[in-house]
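Lecture notes, unit on protein representations.

Consider one protein chain, 185 amino acids long.
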Amino acid sequence: MSRNPLEPMEEALTPIAVIRTTLETLQVFPDDRELCEELERVIADARVGLFNAIAEAAALCPEGPAPELRDPLHHLLTCGVPRRVLDHLMKVDLFVRVGAAAANSDTAVYRYPLPSGTTPDQLESLPTLALWRRLLQDLEHAASENGSYTDSVTFDREVFQRYVALLYAAYASADPIFYGCGGAL
């Protein structure tokens, strides 16, 4: 039986939780070198799990037009989604908190950051599932960057928000309670 592409995305929550908790612990005990070294190894192991889950989700992505996914992805990239709505629907305390901490940011709305080297027109011209795969590659890139793991706020901004936003778009394409669309993935 083949796996649904959302399964590895949902499974990525485990390494994300480990990373977030470990980064928060590092902030509490910055002077304990032995503990910090051990926690850095925990983060390194969890990063592998996160990276593998994202790569598997991209590999399992089906072929086809997936029109139901187009509107949620387009909305994330252009208009954005109110941060409080994402926090509420995805049952997290993330978007409003990170938005408030970001300088020069529209704190009310979350827009998925454009992947490096792309323009809105380039993304808009991609077929829906190619766009989905491109955004998964962007998430994979953010998850592979060492700079994304300097502290919990940076990780939340660079990796976790992207992850939750893509998961939201996938859920929105499948469940009318999220967005009012059909089921692409």
